[in-house]
Amino acid sequence: MNTDVVIVGGGPGGATAAMFLKHEGIQSIIVEKEEFPRYHIGESMSGEAGGVLRRLGLEAEMLSRRHPVKRGLTVYGPSGKTSWFVPVMARDNNWELYPQSTWQVHRQDFDKMMLDEAVARGATLLPGRATRPLVGDDGAVRGVEVRLADGSMVEVAADVVLDCSGQNTFLANAGVTGPKYLGSYDKQIAIFSQVVGAIRDEGPKYGDTLIFYQQKYHWSWFIPLDDETVSVGVVIPSAYFLDKKESKRDFLLRELQEINPECQRRLAEIELVEDVRVIPNYSYQVQGFTGKGFMCLGDAHRFIDPIFSFGLYLSMWEGERAAQVIKGYLNGANRDAANPFTEHELFLEKGIDVLEDMIDTFWEYPLAFALFMHQRYRELMLDIFAGRLHERQPSEALLEMRRLLKRERGYDKPGEYSVPIGSRYRPERAPIWVATDVEYD
C-alpha cells in the first residue's frame, strides 16, 4: 500500500493535516486504532483554533451543531471575589484587534466530525494499529507497519510519516526521534468529569471557560459543552490526592465545593453524568521530532501545562502548517538535506516556547502577570492567549516575562534550543527518557 503521506492518529491534528494536504493535492492515509466516537479530554479552543476551522470552511458546520460559543476566559482568585477576563480577540489586516469567538466542544463529537470530514474530502481511513515505523538503510523513515483488526499486517509506504499519535508519542517510543525529556509539573494529576445543574453566566459569556484558582498548582476548570453539560475538573499535586484517602468521585465532589467560593456557588447542586477519570498532568518535550521522511505533530512531540487550553489549537495549527511544509518537500525542497524539516522544527519550538514562558510567569509571578495582562501589555498578552505565537514575537511583553523568569532562549544550535528549560522542568527529578527494548504493540 502506497501513499504520499501516512498519518498515525485520526484525532483533530491528523484530520486537519489530511484536509489541508488534500487541498494541496496530496494524498494521505490515516491510521487510527480506535473507533470514533471515543472519549477525549481537552474541550476548549483558543481564538486561533477557531481561525483554523474557518479556513477549513467549517464555521457553518460548527454553528449548526450548536457547540457553545466561547468569547473569553475568566480566572477567579482564591477568594472568589476577584477575577480577570481575557476576551477572544483577532487581528485584521492592519493588525488592529477586534472581537472574535471560538468554540467549546464535546471531543467525542468534534473529533468524529473532523475525521469524517477528512475522509469525505478524500483521505483514506485505515482502521488498525501502527506497530512500527519502516526505516530504510539510510535511516530515513519510509512508512509504517499496521496491524489490522483481523490481526493481519500491512505495510504502508509513504514519502512522509506524520506522527499525530498524541501522548502515545509513536515515533519517540520507537526511538526514531531524539530523546524524550520528561518534566513533572510537581507531580500533578487531573481528576475530572461532566456535570449538569451548573450555574453559568448569562448573555455573551454563557459559553465561556472559567478557571478557579486556589493556590499555586491547585486549580479547577469549568467548560460548557452544550446547553446542559459542563466539563469540570481539578488539578492538584498527586500527593495531596493520596493524603485525602478518598475515591476519585468523593475527592472531586468535595474539591469542587472547597477549592474556591465562586466554584462552590456555581456547582452547589450538580449531577455527575460521566465517569470520574484521572490522568497525570506531566510535561514532556521530544528532541529531534522531525527528520528524513517524518515529523511529529502536537502532543506527539511536546506537552505543556494545559491550564489555558492550547492543546487543540497547537495540534490543528501544526497540522495546517505541516501540509504547507510537506508540499514543499514533495516538490523537491531540501530533499537531499540530512533533515529536510529543520526550519519547520525550529519554527514550532519558538512558538510553543512563547506559551510556556507565559504560563510559567503566571505560576511564578502572578502579581506581575496580572499587571502585564490588564495594564502594561494587554494587547500583546491577548495575542498570546489567542495563539498568535509567531507574528511579531518576541514581543516586549514576552521579553519582560523572560527577564522575570531569568530565562534565555537561544535558537542558534538545534541541540540546545530543543532541551527543555521551562514548565518547572527539573532535570534531577525528571531524567531523560530513552527508548530501550521497545515493544511496538
Q: State the CATH topology of the domain at 2-45 and 107-183 and 283-341 and 411-433.
A: FAD/NAD(P)-binding domain
Shape: globular
Find the count of extended strands (DSSP E, 2+ residues). 23
What is the CATH domain class of the domain at 2-45 and 107-183 and 283-341 and 411-433?
Alpha Beta
Structural class: alpha+beta
CATH architectural arrangement of the domain at 2-45 and 107-183 and 283-341 and 411-433: 3-Layer(bba) Sandwich
Enumerate how many helices there are, as a single number.
14
**Mean model confidence by pLDDT:** 93
How helical, in percent, are the residues?
Answer: 25-40%
CATH superfamily of the domain at 2-45 and 107-183 and 283-341 and 411-433: FAD/NAD(P)-binding domain
Distance between the termini: 21 Å
Rg calc: 21 Å
Give the uncertain stretches in residue-range form: 435-441
Instruction: Tell me the major beta sheet.
Output: 8 strands, mixed
Strand content: 25-35%
Written description of the protein model:
This protein is α+β, with helices and mostly antiparallel strands and 441 residues long. Among the domains are: 2-45 and 107-183 and 283-341 and 411-433, FAD/NAD(P)-binding domain, CATH 3.50.50.60; 186-280, D-Amino Acid Oxidase, Chain A, domain 2, CATH 3.30.9. The chain has helices at 12-23, 47-55, 59-64, 107-120, 170-173, 238-244, 248-258, 261-266, 311-330, 342-364, 366-376, 378-386, 396-405, 414-417; strands spanning 2-8, 28-32, 69-70, 72-76, 83-87, 89-91, 97-99, 102-103, 124-135, 141-148, 153-163, 180-182, 188-196, 209-215, 218-224, 229-237, 271-272, 277-280, 284-286, 290-291, 294-296, 302-303, 432-433. Strands 4, 5, 13, 14, 15, 16, 17 and 18 form an eight-stranded mixed beta sheet that branches. Strands 1-2-9-10-11 form a five-stranded mixed barrel. The two termini are 21 Å apart. Mean pLDDT is 93; it is low at 435-441.
